[in-house]
Amino acid sequence: MQTSEFLAALLDRLPPDSLLVSALGRTSEELYRLAAARTLVTDTMGDVAALSTGLAIGARPLTVAGIDTDGSFLMNLSVVTALGACLPTLDNHTLAIVDNGLYESAGGMPSRGVPLDWRQLFGAVGLTVVTVRTPADLPEKLPEPGVVVVGHVTNDDPAPPAAKPIDGVESAYLIEKYVARQRGVAYRRPAVKT
Amino acid sequence: MTVVGAVGAYQALVDSDVDLITAVPDSLLAPLHRCAAERDDIAYLPVCDEATAVGIAAGARLAGSRSLVLMENSGLRRACETLARFTLSHRLHTVLLLARRGAFGEANWWGLPHEETMHPHLRMLSVAAAEVDSVEAFPGLLRRAYDTLDTGQRTVALVANPSFVEELRGR
Q: What are the pLDDT digits (tens) for B41-51?
């Protein structure tokens, strides 16, 4: 299963207006291609899970999917206990990890030097891992509270070039407006004087 | 058990419409942490490190929440990578209430570097900062902190000075 196949199938299982919080690299390029208007693109490793959890807390009932990568997620394992505390009752959030075993954007080196059992890692804080090796392994419908989706991918093409015509600041502004629109609330007023 | 000063500070958060506190416990702000944990006016989420606290709070903020991070000033170092990415590359902001460990009179050898490193971190991260000296001054500073946050341009830090911390402890 390639990253593009996994992400397309994942989005197919989520509500069509779901907000996506993307890790960097191939995942970001692919998500932006699939759903530009509702993807928060980030260039921060180790923060996607916390960021998407916070967005889900604040954006209820809008569904939020944090779509991280193995290398990024492993950069801040302190988040695991927070996820264990939040995700079982956060019914508008999905965390998915795209695991290619590599730091692809950083030159293709392995993301870890030992086998990693995602089920045990998340199981230690009461979360359930759905392992996805083909799109058919995905649950029919997401989100499922307390479930983390780990997609094992292999890509035989080179990492794509950066093609997104957007930076982190513009993406944050657009997503802030997207959430306000979806929730039917007023957008933040950045000034009080004309 | 909570004490009057901490209850007053907590009430200021409630009155300021803070709706989410993410927190890394520390001894100086402990009375406020306990107060927040015992009450349910504001969602209180204790986490294990400051980067996670900032990440969750900034995400909630982007969705329109009025979030607050409680942490010691040493947490600026721990969360520096996350804060740098968020504040400088993404404009993902939040409000921090920082316990001021290492202020003049600090009696712990390990606390002194926290003061020394706090100031350059706040500067290099372009954080708008003010000092909190008393529970009485806290509501006004909170209002101003969220006014600046609402510009979408800056993360804001309120630095809890020793006199404020003493009041939290009811002294």
A: 999 999 999 99
CA A180 distance to own-chain centroid: 20
Task: Nearest by CB to A59, from B58, B63, B92: name it.
Answer: B63
Q: Which token pair is A183?
A: 């929730």
* Average pLDDT rounded to a whole number, residues A154-160: 93
Q: What is the pLDDT of residues B71-96, one digit of tens each?
A: 999 999 999 999 999 999 999 999 99
Cβ distance of B56 and A53 shorter than 8 Å: yes
* Tokens of residue A138, six digits: 């995905």
Please tell me the predicted confidence (pLDDT) of residue B4: 77
A3 — phi, psi (to 5°)? -55, -45
> What are the structure tokens assigned to A177, written together?
């407006």
Shortest distance between the Cα of A46 and any Cα of chain B, in A, equals 8
- Beta bridge partners of residue A64, listed in sequence order: A19, A93
Pairing of strands A64-69, A147-152: unpaired
Q: Is the pLDDT of residue B164 over 80?
A: yes
Q: How many CB atoms lie within 10 A of CB A69?
A: 30
| pLDDT given at position B8 | 96
Q: Which long-range contacts (CB under 8 A, 24 or more apart) does B162-166 make?
A: B162/B100, B162/B103, B162/B105, B163/B133, B163/B134, B164/B9, B164/B132, B164/B133, B164/B134, B164/B135, B164/B138, B165/B28, B165/B29, B165/B99, B165/B100, B166/B5
A-chain residues within 8 Å CB-CB of B87?
Answer: none
| Residues B22-68: tens digit of each pLDDT | 999 999 999 999 999 999 999 999 999 999 999 999 999 999 999 99
Task: Please work out, in degrees rounded to the nearest 5, the angle formed at the alpha carbon of residue B164 by the alpha carbons of B24 and B29.
Answer: 15
CA distance B45 to B36: 9
Bond into A158 cis (ω within 30): no
Q: Do B56 and A189 touch (CB under 8 A)?
A: no
**pLDDT score at B3:** 63
CB A76 within 8 A of CB A29: no
Q: pLDDT for A95-106, tens place per residue?
A: 999 999 999 998
